[in-house]
Design a protein that fits this description.
The complex is a heterodimer. By secondary structure, chain A is an alpha/beta fold. Chain A has 9 helices and 10 strands. Chain A has 2 domains: 166 residues, P-loop containing nucleotide triphosphate hydrolases (Rossmann fold, 3-Layer(aba) Sandwich); 63 residues. By secondary structure, chain B is mostly helical. Chain B has one domain. In chain B, helix 6 crosses helix 11. The chains are: A alpha/beta, B mainly alpha.
């Protein structure tokens, strides 16, 4: 197998819906072992970009290479090596926590014995060892997110794709997710994540790209973006931060 | 235009559909007994109520009823109608819940499974579940002595085919449905009239000629024409024609349903 130094390469991606160009020519690449963040206000094109990368919708033009496979042509083969945490929980309410992992592992063609061997470790990772036989509706929002993250790891993926992983969680639940993601990065996993929490981006991302209206308007390490765009803090009481950068670049108007 | 063509491209079928089938089977197994009993109650009420109540008013051994009792005639029709209902409920309400409410299909598509596999898995599962409910009625019929011939075993694959032929059009309706309320139209405009026009309760020949012509294009007519003779111990007339009609409905409707579902979920 090739050494995947670039688990994801996106080149000049375009996607329109109706008359509107939702993704208007973006390019970026992930290096192995890094956490790359796509930041942007609602409607910036982040989720559409992820859907194109996973082969769930066809781009109008541009090229995508995911774990070395061309997308969408070989999306199914590529997804075998990807873990996805979607924006909205879609755990299977017909099953318990452990059954969710079992059934999801089967979708990857992993045999039952191998999945069952992994389940206790994944539940432990998610802090849900005592909830193995709990129904999904009995889990809190934070527990569901952690189980979704565990589910995304069932195939020991090369790349984790997380779409707003902590939206809707309370600070305690959010910090626990961050801690788990930092653990995964320490193990050498590559992560692509979208967020509009600047604190999340600052804590987790090695590099990030700020998107607005389908374009990447700035890209770099969090520190470099702050130094470039907000050299002098807007407030004498605190140093400048990523939120200042974000608001400067994407404006103050509401996006809903 | 190009996008529409892409959505209706030929299905790409694979064995991965089996894992979707297994998922649904695993859920069903948890509630297998109540599910079978629930599916059995409604057709049994009709079969006994009409079969004995109405049947007692009718002369025995009418040629129109195949020379047997009315309840034996009705029982064979009930197998078909019940298979149709079971397949339609699963392909509409249950599949819609998985597609739209629970977003189970979205989750599965993040694994290496395509929408083509998911819809194929749902189609095969729906037919299998309908077959289980058909078999439950076949067992009741056999226990009551309303069928004697070993040919009745051939009814089982025919029930599966009937399940497919109703699963596929049901999935078209699911693909178009904005909410559960939409399904009422399909049942009141399509399923219920078909029950009365396809020879379930009385022979087709009793209908005016125009209705008989309409009946020829209804899938349930072909299911009844296949399954009733088998339960009476006869080889169905023009069996291959009926099989071909049901198989064609399955393939064409699966393709249309898949195109509509691709348009709904993948754009």
């Amino acid at each position: 197998m090739e050494t995947l130094n670039q688990p994801l390469v996106v080149t000049d991606l375009h996607k329109r819906y109706g008359g509107r160009e939702v993704v208007a020519g973006i390019s970026f690449a992930l290096a192995r072992g890094e956490c790359f963040g796509l930041l942007g206000p609602n409607g910036a094109g982040k989720t559409t970009t992820l859907r194109c990368c996973l082969g769930l919708t066809g781009p109008d033009s541009g090229s995508i290479s995911l774990v070395g496979e061309p997308i969408p042509a070989r999306a199914r083969e590529a997804r075998a090596r990807i873990g996805v945490v979607p924006q909205f929980d879609n755990l299977d309410p017909d099953f318990t926590a452990a059954e969710n992992l079992l059934v999801f592992g089967r979708y990857f063609g992993i045999d039952d014995a191998a999945i069952r061997a992994r389940i206790p470790r994944l539940l432990d990772f998610a802090g849900l060892s005592s909830k193995a036989n709990a129904q999904i509706r009995e889990l809190s929002g934070g527990m569901k997110r952690r189980l979704t993250l565990a589910r995304a790891l069932i195939n020991d993926p090369d790349l984790l794709v997380l779409d707003e992983p902590t939206t809707g969680l309370d600070p305690q639940a959010r910090h626990l997710i961050w801690e788990r993601l930092q653990g995964l990065l320490a193990e050498g996993k590559t992560i692509l994540l979208t967020t509009h929490f600047m604190e999340e981006a600052e804590r987790l991302c090695h590099r990030l790209a700020i998107m607005d209206e389908g374009r990447i308007i700035s890209e770099g390490t969090p520190q470099a973006l702050i130094a470039e765009h907000i050299p002098v803090s807007p407030s004498p009481l605190r140093p400048s931060n990523l939120e200042d950068v974000f608001l400067k670049l994407t404006g103050h108007e509401l996006r809903d | 235009m190009m996008e529409a063509a892409a959505h209706f491209a030929p299905p790409s079928l694979s064995w991965r559909a089996v894992s979707v089938w297994r998922r649904n089977f695993m859920v069903w197994r948890k509630f297998a007994i109540p599910s079978i009993l629930g599916n059995l109650a409604d057709p049994m009420i009709y079969m006994f109520g009409l079969g004995y109540g109405l049947g007692s008013l009718l002369p025995q051994a009418l040629p129109a009823f195949g020379g047997g009792s009315y309840i034996a005639f009705l029982a064979a029709g009930t197998v078909c109608a019940s298979t149709m209902n079971a397949a339609s409920f699963e392909a509409l309400y249950s599949a819609f819940a998985r597609m739209h409410v629970q977003k189970s299909w979205d989750a599965i598509m993040n694994a290496p499974i395509s929408l083509d596999d998911i819809v194929l898995g749902e189609l095969l599962w729906t037919a299998a579940k309908a077959m289980l409910s058909g078999i439950a009625i076949l067992i009741v019929i056999a226990v009551l002595g309303l069928t004697h011939s070993p040919l009745a075993f051939w009814a089982i694959p025919c029930v599966f085919l009937t399940g497919l032929a109703f699963a596929a059009p049901g999935l078209i309706v699911t693909a178009l449905a904005p909410s559960y309320d939409f399904f009422m139209y399909y049942f009141t405009l399509f399923i219920t009239p078909m029950m009365l026009l396809s020879g379930v309760f009385f022979p087709l020949e009793q209908l005016p000629t125009a209705f008989q012509a309409v009946a020829q294009v209804l899938p349930l007519t072909h299911a009844v024409a296949l399954i009733r003779p088998l339960l009476f111990g006869q080889v169905p007339d023009m069996a291959w024609l009926h099989i071909a009609v049901l198989a064609t409905i399955t393939v064409v409707c699966y393709w249309i349903a898949l195109g509509l579902i691709r348009r709904r979920l993948l754009s």
